[in-house]
Design goal:
- This protein has three helices and four strands; from the N terminus they run βαβααββ.
- The protein is α+β, with helices and mostly antiparallel strands and about 120 residues long.
- It has one domain: GTP cyclohydrolase I, C-terminal domain/NADPH-dependent 7-cyano-7-deazaguanine reductase, N-terminal domain (GTP Cyclohydrolase I, domain 2, 2-Layer Sandwich).
- It has a four-stranded antiparallel beta sheet.
- Helix 2 runs antiparallel to helix 3.
């Protein structure tokens, strides 16, 4: 794995129903996902999509994780995303951050997020 080859997807917004409170599961809210992928392949001498990670396909996987299942914890959402990306793409390591900008906290906050690293060494 080359540490200097990274594919970033930033600011992927989804309306989903994750949360501990019943209102979160019923009303839903906006979530934002950032992901960094460290590919096992790279198009050094090629201009072919077959030599890299198709980020449109990665987006579809993240969308499925975000919108087609309800989780109580954004920690669990991040794990689901990381697990699928590592299994379905030629990716050695990922960093996934799930933001919950409207978390039900009685105070003024900009954002709540979790960040996980999965795969090979950091």
């Amino acid at each position: 794995m080359r540490e200097d080859n990274i594919i970033h997807l930033r600011g992927l917004e989804f309306y989903a129903y994750h949360g501990v409170l019943p209102a979160e599961n019923g009303l839903g809210q906006k979530f934002i996902v950032d992901i960094d992928m460290y590919p096992a392949i790279w198009p050094i001498d090629s201009d072919s999509i077959d030599r890299t990670i198709n980020y449109a396909e990665v987006y579809a996987v993240i969308k499925d994780c975000m919108e087609n299942k309800k989780y109580k914890l954004i920690e669990t959402v991040a794990e689901a995303i990381a697990d699928r990306v590592l299994k379905e793409f030629p990716c050695e390591r990922v960093r996934v951050e799930v933001h919950k900008p409207n978390a039900p906290i009685p105070g003024i906050i900009r954002d709540v997020s979790v960040e996980i690293w999965r795969g090979g060494r950091k």
